[in-house]
Amino acid sequence: MLNTPPLSLYIHLPWCVRKCPYCDFNSHRQPLNPGYSDYIDALLADLRFQLSSIQGRGIETIFIGGGTPSLFPASEIRRLLHEVSHLVGGINAVEVTLEANPGTLEAGRYAGYREAGINRLSIGVQSFNDRALQSLGRIHGSEEIYKAVSQAREAGFENINLDLMFGLPEQSIEEARIDVETAINLNPEHISYYQLTIEPNTRFALSPPPLLPSDDHLWDIQLQGRARLVDAGYQQYEISAYSRVQKECRHNLNYWTFGDYLGIGAGAHSKLSDQTQQRIRRSSRVRSPEAYMAAAGTRGALSGKYFLKDTDLVIEFMMNLLRLNGGFTAQLFRDRTGLPLSRVEPILAEAQRRGLLGTDGIEFGATAWGHRYLNDLLTLFI
Length: 382
Known about the structure:
Layout: E1 7-13, E2 15-16, E3 28-29, H1 36-54, E4 61-66, H2 74-88, E5 95-100, H3 107-116, E6 120-126, H4 130-135, H5 142-154, E7 160-166, H6 173-185, E8 190-195, H7 203-206, H8 215-231, E9 235-238, E10 241-243, H9 250-256, E11 260-264, E12 269-274, E13 279-285, H10 289-295, E14 302-307, H11 310-321, E15 328-329, H12 330-337, H13 345-353, E16 357-359, E17 363-366, H14 368-372, H15 374-379
Parallel strand pairs: 1-4, 1-11, 2-3, 4-5, 5-6, 6-7, 7-8
Antiparallel strand pairs: 8-10, 9-10, 12-13, 13-14, 15-17, 16-17
Helix pairs in contact: 1-2, 1-10, 2-3, 3-5, 6-8
């Protein structure tokens, strides 16, 4: 039987100063007159329209992503969270994350975000090497990163994530080591350490950067980074996520454990368990900010809506859970998919035979080999 999992809220703010060449998210260059207030009005209209789909369920985490959410004034973020709290019945003690770019923030805005109800910042560092930042098309330099973290601490933030990339153009193992060491020295509660990948429909896909590290080089960088982060007291709980004790990103953990989430904003996606139908429904909003703002609060804002088939349930569950160090139990598989474990037992056995999956008789999880070759492991479930 399909059980009701925790529910998160994702809020998409779509504008950036400029589009980074590696970015495949639904982000758009900020217009001359962006209309922040109008966009917040559209978000709230969208939320009101979708309230019936969550049937009074409480929100456990909120993530404001983008785009570059830190382009929005603190006053608009405050208004947004105030109205969200009113509509969903309160958000006290909820993890509320805001993505921030060091190149878009001045000192006073951090305090404004903190007062607005943001209690976790995710700062898009990517690298501390100015040459690498330039090759990635970032609008900030290393000095702005140090200022951003310092000013966030001064504003009272006690839960900060730093996004850090490896596998950058011309990056040596030593340069990657220095990036990790510098991030550790800033003492954030959480570090997301992930590989630059060339995604379709990006500028890097059309014109790949020169001298990207080889696969063996990437593996050496990843192992080196992991070892140093763990040695510094960061627990790896997902392929690219490291945290201090009890500082895991609760919002992302809900994604990775196949929880439910409601998405509002241009291009936002939702995954909701329908107890009446005993099925999982996905939906998405139109990607264009202008089209979204014009249609928010109506069915016209929808770009897609469908129930997941059983085969889709299996692969989506595995794509998320097998990223985690902890894996999953038979009970969690049944609760989150509504399917019996017997549906995948032959595949689990084959994955174990190949050394990609391990089990202690209760939990199943990817081995170190399985994490390195995760695509091979997931292909078994398709």
